[in-house]
């Protein structure tokens, strides 16, 4: 059986990362940089990266040792190439790799971007934030808005400011759905299905603005159906801001101290 060259590169990337992780754990046996803040909280709280730690502990009976906690980000990093491959295929309207074990070379190179790659061997929230934001965009772009809403909500537990990326993913997903809707209408020549009037930018003129505005009411029922899954995390985020007194976790408690 022939082994795809991308699988070989991905395998080499995986082995190399595991070797680096082992070396880091051998040399840095105490919490490093911001890890003294994150690691103790992993024992007591379940939010963001800590949720993954609890899952690994409960499901796989892993202990919350420093190397095991750091392994959270290593696993996320190894899942980035397949995820990025599918995101690139979506943006370029290409076919994604046939197997998750055959990510593109480009996606592997992007996953090795120094800023993200460095945190693959420490117990930080960066990798989880990036991973779930990309998963949100991918799901939204494919029209799986329920999953996009869930992934976006999870991403906000890593970084509260990811609510902005959730809004981007929602807008991107809606535009992708409109594009597919227009293509289906053109192929089937079905004029009964309401679509947004959306002329090509090169052919558009000021006279098209009223046509665009008049076409909006017809798609409102469809638009509400697409948008509603995103309302839940947005309302949850707004509730968090109100309860917390700000976007930074614990801001209200800090301000209330004498």
Tell me what you see in this structure:
- The chain is mainly α and 258 residues long.
- The chain has 2 domains: 122 residues, no CATH class; 95 residues, no CATH class.
- The chain is built from 11 helices and no strands.
- α1 packs antiparallel against α4, α7 runs antiparallel to α8 and α8 crosses α10.
- The longest helix is centred in the C-terminal third of the chain and has 37 residues.
- It starts with a helix and ends with a helix.
- The C terminus is likely disordered.
- This is Dol-P-Glc:Glc(2)Man(9)GlcNAc(2)-PP-Dol alpha-1,2-glucosyltransferase.
Provide a concise account of the structure shown:
This protein is 71% helix and 0% strand. It has eleven helices and no strands. Pfam families: DIE2_ALG10.
List keywords for this structure.
258 residues, 71% helix, 0% strand, globular
Report the total helices.
11
List the uncertain runs: 253-258
Give the structural class: mainly alpha
The rounded distance between the terminal residues' Cα atoms is 69 Å
Rg, Å, rounded: 22 Å
The count of β-strands is 0
Order of helices and strands: HHHHHHHHHHH
- Classify the beta-strand content into a percent band: under 5%
* Main pleated sheet: none
Write down the overall mean pLDDT: 80
**Total domain units:** 2
Write down the overall geometry. Answer: globular
* Multimeric state: single chain
Helix content: over 70%
Transmembrane segments: 130-150, 162-178, 227-249
Organism: Thanatephorus cucumeris (strain AG1-IB / isolate 7/3/14)
Keywords: Endoplasmic reticulum, Glycosyltransferase, Membrane, Transferase, Transmembrane, Transmembrane helix
Pathway: Protein modification; protein glycosylation
